[in-house]
Design goal:
282 residues, alpha/beta, Rossmann fold, 34% helix, globular
Length: 282
């Protein structure tokens, strides 16, 4: 669907957060977040995450600054970085850009800043592959804000022309679709991969993503599948490849067991292997 109408302000992400990993040059999250903020006339916050804070802490992430964070030497260039980030944003046409420095782990930082933002843009390779699920996955599952996860070494322009949605009828999937509405409204092609075949909990009214999208002026191409969680991830990645998608939208699934996160198969597969941006929400 092509939408040339002005997007209602209620569907715009008004405050966007970028977790920045480099300033010379600016990391992909900063570049992508500025592009999104500019398109939707949003406010932007850039947050620098020191490499020392992107490593396992050996314990459960808390809401207070970590000992390591408190021991970090203050970044003497932070004032210059603030000015540089504001200048970088202004050069792109964005006026409202703020800059902060994280003093605690990724999960705690994202929870705190996510409370006042509508979207977080993060880089999948901001952590080592061995810490992808324990560090970045934990942050996505606990932050309460939609996360746009960029694939490793992402240097392409952020686009929203062709979008694939994965929906299994879960609360997480419904939240992700709702969060993606601003992007779905401007897409030229939306493919809906619906894995909810009516075998869920009858205690709740069934969510029909096709009807929901139609009510928002979006006409998706539906595809109904029956697959295990592990296979669902592969199906979504294949569908995204088939249409050369710019974005994949899905819920992030996980539960706690013995103080550790256990991730759903589809979430794990997509988080590990996607080569395009993925909008996830728990």
């Amino acid at each position: 669907m092509t939408s040339t109408e002005q997007i209602p302000r209620t569907t715009r992400p008004g405050d966007i957060l970028a977790l920045v990993t480099a300033t010379e040059p600016w990391s992909p999250a900063a570049v992508a977040a500025i592009a999104i903020a500019l398109r939707w006339e949003a406010n932007l916050t850039g947050c620098f995450i020191d490499p020392a804070l992107r490593k396992p802490t050996g314990g459960k992430a808390g809401s207070e600054p970590t000992v390591l964070g408190l021991l970090l030497e203050p970044r003497i260039e932070s004032a210059d970085e603030h000015a540089a980030f504001a200048a970088f944003a202004r050069q792109s046409g964005l006026r409202n850009a703020d800059w902060v420095i994280a003093r605690t782990d990724i999960a705690s930082t994202l929870r705190r800043l996510g409370a006042r933002h509508d979207l977080a843009v993060i880089e999948r390779d901001m952590v080592h592959a061995s810490g992808l699920l324990d560090i970045l996955g934990e942050a996505i599952l606990s932050c309460g804000v939609p996360c746009l996860v960029l694939p490793p070494q992402w240097r392409r322009e952020i686009r929203f022309e062709r979008i694939v949605i994965g929906c299994n009828g879960s609360t997480e999937a419904i939240r992700a679709i709702h969060a993606a509405l601003p992007f779905l409204k401007v897409a030229k092609q939306v493919t809906l991969v619906d894995g909810d075949l009516g075998n869920g909990d009858d205690a709740y009214p069934r969510f029909d993503p096709f009807v929901y999208l139609l009510r928002h002026g979006i006409t998706p191409r539906p595809s109904y599948v029956r697959a295990s969680s592990a296979m669902a991830g592969e199906i979504l990645l294949q569908e995204a490849g088939n249409i050369d998608a710019d974005l994949l939208v899905m819920g992030a699934y996980g539960h706690s067991r013995m103080r550790e996160r256990v991730f759903g198969g589809a979430t794990r597969r997509v988080l590990e292997e996607a080569t395009i941006p993925v909008l996830m929400q728990h």
